[in-house]
Each structure stands twice: as structure tokens, then as C-alpha cells.
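hey m, so remember when u said the C-alpha cells were messed up on ur end? i reran from scratch. heres the input so u can diff it against urs
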Amino acid sequence: MTDSFHARRIKRMMNSAIAAEGLRVRRGGREVLRGVAFDVPRGEITGLLGPSGCGKTTLMRSVVGVQIVEGGDLTVLGHPAGSPELRRRIGYATQNPAIYADLTVTEVLRYFAAVLRAPASDVDRVIGEVGLTGHAGKLVGSLSGGQHNRANLAVALLGKPELLVLDEPTVGLDPVLRDELWDLFRGLADAGATLLVSSHVMDEAARCDRLLLLREGILLASDTPENLRRRTGSADLEQAFLRLVREEEATRS
């Protein structure tokens, strides 16, 4: 490979919030991610979409640095994924929240703010941003499923991280709250944050600046919603995804 190729590759990895090349992950003897390559631009919302079990959570765990990677390169905010320098620069909301049920929402957030060395004022800010002001004094264990998800999201927002990795943050939420959260996501991106948001709900795809479409560990597309519509000749993103699936299946046969 030429020096100019290496220079372009390094520049790409430094300029992108996330840059993956040939990313492979194996879990339980099964190859979950199969040579995935993509870029996530800084300051945008990138949607990671695909059916349950396609590898979305594994990819996000790889980005955050808590997943063993078998092969390939994965750079996050200019550093190898999992680097100590990234710990306070990434906010991560898991699909299955693990926050203390016997503490109030405020107590949980004060604890995590101290761990992350976030300003004490962040607690009230993030509670308001996720719409839990009226539930701040309630025990986490008494919250509904949707409220619990919002409390988990609030933890990820502490410290105003540069990159937010959100694994299906709108699951179990009513349409009004989903809309409010997407407005929040857009506001965060407009303020300079980068968001990687997973979902299996295709109607959320149109809210993203860029989409990563994943199926059975293979990345079918990495493009803008408009380009995907144009490429597949479909006005509907769900139909566009289905056409890409059929194209990929045709190449196998």
C-alpha cells in the first residue's frame, strides 16, 4: 500500500467520530459482525437499523470498547476504541438499563455525576432534558419501563459527552415522548455532539442524517436517507431496506 493511501486512511479516521474498517466480532463461536466498514461523521445523527439479532448491540459495544474485537480497525474520536482517553468523552445508554433500583432518580444521577466528574448542575439539566422532572424524587425501582429508559438516557447525557451511543433509547415509549426525545437528539447534534442511535423501527430512520443498515452481521448500506431512496428507487425507507436485502440475497445465490 502507498504512503498516500495510509495518509488518506489516517485522515479519515481522525476526521470521523467513528471509523471502522473490516470490523469482525465473534461471540459464542458465531461471527456476529462480518467485515463491517463505515464512517460516522462528527456532529450528526447516525441511525443503526436492522432486525433484532443482526449485530447492532455488538457493534455499539465495540464502539464503546466493552466488546472484544476479533479483527479489523475501529477508531473512535481519533483513538482506538476502548482507549482510556475516551471514557469521559462517550455517553452510552444500554438496551437493558442497569441503574440502582433502591435510589431515587436524583440520587442515581448524583452518584454517576460524581463518578464521571460531571458538574453537580448537570443532574437537574439532564432530568429536565429527558422529561423526568416530576419523577426526580421517585425510586428508580418504582418507575415504569419507559421512565426507566429515560433515567438511563439521563445518565448517558451527564458531562455533555462528544459522542452518544444509544441502544434503542425509544423502546417502550409513547409516540409523544418518542417525538420529544428525537427533538432532544437533534438539538444535541446541532450543538456539536455526535449520536449513534440504534433502532429496529424504520419510521425513525428519516430522522437521521445518515443510516447504517445491518443484517446478519453484514452492512448493507451506509448512506443518507435521501441517497438510499434514490439508489433503490423507493420513497419509503422500509421498502428501500427490503430491496437492499433482496439485492444482498441475490449475490449469495
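this time it looks ok to me. The helical segments are 3-15, 56-64, 105-116, 122-129, 145-157, 175-190, 225-232, 237-252. if urs says something different then somethings off w ur setup not the seq
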